[in-house]
Amino acid sequence: MDFKKKNMKIIIFGAAGAIGNYLTKKYLENNHEVLLFVKDPRSKRELLKLLNLDNLDKVIIDHLNIEKKNSIKKKINKHIFFFRNSDLIINATGDLGEIKNVLDLDLKKFEKTLNINFFSNLFILQKILKSTKKNKRLSIIIFSGGGVTSYRKNFCAYSISKIALVKLVEIVSKEIGNKLIQINAISPGIIKSKMIDITLQNKKLVSKNEILKIKKQVSKSNKTLNNLFNFINFLQSKKGRKISGKLISSKWDNIENWNRKKIERLCKSDLYSIRRVQ
Fold first, then answer.
1. Which among 19, 39, 75, 217 has most CB atoms closer than 10 A?
2. Tens of pLDDT, residues 136-157
């Protein structure tokens, strides 16, 4: 997919993870400016080593504790100029949570997962939307996950936090309005990551079908990540910018091949939203 928008300012939370790291490399290859957030100084050093850049003119890397409101607030204020002039914000942070039967869950750990996957996103959105320019439409990408549209045994904390996040995307789109913001939840597909490694280590609690599905698809991670990158680029295009408040899959949905009329019908309907099936 050909995408030629120049000099974008892009912010990525969770830049040291599998998705964040891949997208960072692709955006730098395309000469965009990036502000990257990782969880601690060690992650910052590791990311710099992975990126292996000769020139850091277009890169700012900082660390924050995604679980702490004060840390988020401090970093947004520190980089407020970049935030106010940003074109695209991607939040690739996430916590898998405990893989357990609902009756055996540690509620403190459940609360931590909700805090990382949902409340941190809500707080970041509040801070960003109150500080960005009113005359510039901002695009925000948040990631959905397995268990949002189907039952996923023993992934209660992860599934519930992600369902809440997807509904937040729809609500923000409706309440803030499409003229000020484009926001979507993307399901990226199965990608080789720490979450996948942890899942595979818990074979006794993960269904056999899920294990087989992961093993089959994880070998295609590079293709899946490239599809995700192209999908996000499409959402930044003139045609794709109309889509907001939706839950969409970069692996299974082919909306980038849709014509304008079909996209307009999508935007006016409940398609690609969490709804009761009738």
1. 19
2. 678 999 999 888 988 899 999 9
